[in-house]
Amino acid sequence: MAVQDTRDYERLLREKLYKIKGIRHSKSSFVLRTLKKADLPL
C-alpha cells in the first residue's frame, strides 16, 4: 500500500487494518528514497 505520510499510515492502521477480525499486529517497511519512478495507479 502507498500512503502520503506517517499520519495517513497511522490512519490506515486504525481505521482499516486493525478493524479486520483476527488482525492484532502488523509489520511494515518504509521506502526512504525513490529508485525508479513509474506512473502506476494506486
Radius of gyration, in Å, reads: 13 Å
| N- and C-termini, Cα separation | 8 Å
Element pattern in H and E:
H
Structural class: mainly alpha
Count, helices: 1
**Biggest beta-sheet profile:** none
Shape: elongated
Instruction: Please give the oligomerization state of what you see.
Output: single chain
Residues in helices, as a percent range: 10-25%
Query: How many β-strands, per DSSP?
Result: 0
Question: What is the mean predicted local confidence, pLDDT?
Answer: 86
Low-confidence stretches: none
β-strand amount = under 5%
Write the layout of secondary structure elements.
Elements: H1 6-15
Structural key phrases:
42 residues, mainly alpha
Describe this structure in words.
This protein is 24% helix and 0% strand. 0% of the residues are buried. With 42 residues, it is mainly alpha-helical. The chain is elongated and about 35 Å long.
